[in-house]
Specification:
By secondary structure, this protein is of the alpha/beta class. It has helices at 2-9, 13-21, 25-32, 38-50, 67-86, 108-125, 139-152, 167-174, 199-215, 227-239, 257-265, 281-290, 292-304, and strands at 54-59, 93-97, 129-131, 158-161, 180-184, 219-223, 248-252, 270-276. It has an eight-stranded parallel sheet with strand order 3-2-1-8-7-6-5-4. The structure holds flavin-adenine dinucleotide.
């Protein structure tokens, strides 16, 4: 219920204005977002890499409505990639891209062209791109664009969401040699016709999908903070004889950092997803929707500023 309310608020420009201008918001945002500028992203990356982690960087922005915005997002990724290469942070750091930020909602060809430019820059910088997955109305278009990008840039990563009923079958399609696939639960509000609704069903689907990916020929990227799923991931790594170079765990910036360090200490590859930029509203609301305790954290920040 709370999740639905917060996800509905994530699409409301009125609530966005309220939250963005509230004095307490800065502290909350700082926990989940590395900062507004490219230099903030580079600083956070340097710190994580020094701690033995890998990184994927997300320049925040989605639902872009004009070609100018889409091209500006592409240009920021190009600047970021050259900054990462110049700082010696590739290949440890790669980038995550939302096609909606590159124009997918109004011009698929533009989104593809922009994504291709980012993939070419990532190749030149010695690293890779992963295409984030958004709501289910974009899944086919995103997988089509992924297939086209992989012709020239085979290292381009996909994201599959365990809450979608179709995902186990998508995992089978994508579990091929060299195919990088991030498996997550899924962060959007989806109808019952396409997505499992209960946490138990989503978790069971995650395990089925994980089995397909870990027993397949690709490179699985297990994106979850869920202690049970992480333990199952460790178990499957042993069972399918996948050493740390043949799969990775992924978590979000600011969420369970001690667990990230524990896994690094165990010798696993752990990649932190680091968002930056000033378009943090939709991202922050999805994080709040995932966990009621984060709403309490938000509330405490409000009270402490009163
Ligand atoms: C690297 C990465 C990339 C992602 N990319 C995408 C994407 O492209 N598309 C998409 O739809 N979704 C994406 N997600 C989000 C994902 O779909 C889930 O919404 C999110 O990861 C929460 O699910 P969970 O597996 O962590 O399990 P949950 O069941 O949400 O949480 C399990 C436990 O993890 C901890 N935890 C989880 N979330 C939080 C939080 N916000 N704050 C504090 N503790 C928390 C708590 O201990 C909780 O009990 C991504 C997630 C990660 C880690």
């Amino acid at each position: 219920m709370l999740r639905s309310v917060i996800l509905a608020a994530s699409r409301s420009s009125q609530v966005e204005r309220l939250v963005a201008t509230a004095p307490f918001t800065r502290d909350v945002v700082r926990r989940f977002v590395a900062g507004a500028a490219t230099d903030d992203a580079l600083r956070a990356t340097r710190e994580l890499v020094a701690d033995g982690q890998a990184v994927t960087l997300d320049y925040l922005g989605e639902d872009t409505t004009t070609p100018e915005q889409a091209n500006a997002t592409r240009d920021e990724y190009l600047t970021l990639l050259s900054g990462l290469a110049a700082a010696g942070l590739t290949p440890a750091a790669e980038v995550s891209v939302k096609l909606s930020a590159l124009g997918q909602m109004f011009d698929e060809q533009l989104a593809y062209d922009n994504a291709r430019a980012i993939c070419a820059a990532a190749d030149a910088a010695g690293t890779t791109v992963t295409l984030d997955m958004e709501d289910h109305t974009t899944t086919d278009s995103t997988l089509d664009i992924l297939a086209k990008l992989r012709k020239d840039h085979p290292g381009t990563g996909a994201v599959l969401q365990a809450y979608l009923r179709r995902t186990e079958s998508d995992c089978r399609e994508l579990a091929s040699a060299g195919s990088r696939v991030r498996l997550c639960k899924g962060a959007y509000k989806e109808p019952e016709s396409v997505a499992y609704q209960s946490a138990r069903e989503v978790d069971k689907s995650y395990v089925r999908c994980m089995n397909v990916l870990m027993s397949g020929d690709g490179y699985p990227m297990l994106a979850t903070h869920d202690p049970r799923l992480i333990a199952i991931g460790e178990d499957r790594a042993r069972w399918f004889d996948r050493d740390p170079g043949r799969f990775e765990f992924q978590m979000l910036y600011g969420i369970r950092p001690e667990e990230q360090q524990r896994l690094v200490g165990e010798g696993y590859t752990v990649r932190t997803y680091v968002p930056y930029g000033d378009q943090w509203y939709g991202y922050l609301m999805r994080r709040l929707a995932e966990r009621p305790a984060n709403v309490a954290f938000f509330g405490r920040a409000v009270l402490s500023k009163k």
